[in-house]
Write a structure and sequence with these properties.
The chain is of the alpha+beta class. The chain has a single domain, classed as Translation Initiation Factor IF3 (2-Layer Sandwich), CATH 3.30.110. It contains 4 helices and 4 strands. It has a 4-stranded mixed sheet with strand order 1-2-4-3, with helices on both faces. It is globular. One of its GO terms (molecular function) is RNA binding.
């Protein structure tokens, strides 16, 4: 896994503001946390850089467990948790998909 640059407060505030109007596009259900699910998250973040996911009522994992699982197995950063929703950020490697990372880097 590559070195992760942890986000500073100013960067997290910017990303939280950008994520405000986003809808969750992934959810954690009864199937739980798997490598396949992480691969799908990474793919979505490569295209979008910033997404929201939510934990369904049927999910056995807690928000904290989900956060730890994501950050422990990928270079994805959890920018915010609100209830059962997590805001995830990962800079895209393809410059065409870098909507937020160019701004975040300059902060």
């Amino acid at each position: 896994m590559e070195e992760i640059n942890l986000l500073r407060g100013k960067q997290k505030r910017y990303l939280r503001a950008q994520a405000h109007n986003l809808r969750p596009i992934f959810s954690v259900g009864k199937n739980g946390l798997t490598q396949t699910w992480l691969d799908q998250l990474t793919g979505a973040l490569e295209k979008r850089e910033l997404i929201k996911i939510n934990l369904q009522q049927s999910a056995e994992a807690t928000v904290a467990e989900t956060k730890d699982f994501i950050e422990g197995h990928t270079d994805i950063q959890v920018v915010q948790t609100i209830g059962r929703v997590l805001v995830l950020y990962r800079p895209a490697t393809d410059t065409d998909n870098q909507r937020y990372s160019t701004v975040v880097e300059d902060m």
